[in-house]
Task: structure prediction
Amino acid sequence: SQQGEEDPQALSIQEGENATMNCSYKTSINNLQWYRQNSGRGLVHLILIRSNEREKHSGRLRVTLDTSKKSSSLLITASRAADTASYFCATDLGGQNFVFGPGTRLSVLP
Amino acid sequence: DAGITQSPRYKITETGRQVTLMCHQTWSHSYMFWYRQDLGHGLRLIYYSAAADITDKGEVPDGYVVSRSKTENFPLTLESATRSQTSVYFCASSDAGLAPLLFGPGTRLTVL
Result:
């Protein structure tokens, strides 16, 4: 299986609810990044968390990292229809070597 | 305009033909990358480059060739296209260190 794997594969919620996506990985990392991809578009960087950090916030986004469990979570609070997209975690193995998971498809229903 | 551009955005070709996908960035980033995106696989790295004239293989390099004679350009060539190379191709760039990847809009390639 892949270095980074998101869970769940798909998530459907109502507007205003929180969305949580998880990412598990296998090897040691320098940092972990989350990206968003709207349908038919390129990926957009959301947030980076270093290996020595445990939690990071950016607006409605909260990312946690547990290096002992080799896992990360992305929480989107008070979701909006515009948050509908695919979300990917990318693990940085060093030397700009990024490995992406298959992604979580989030649908936010109005 | 500043950013990263890819051309063409859509391409249909036939098995056995040579195809070149272009990527141009205006940030003078040292690193450039080519990924392919297929359902169920996420993004897989084909090739990357740390600087002009320095390229290295990624996870799925077979059937592809890259070059980087100038910092801003990183073309990807399929020397003899196969149906398995039907995919969406993304170019990205970044600075060294804790820099995020900045992606282009993608090229949707269909090999018949």
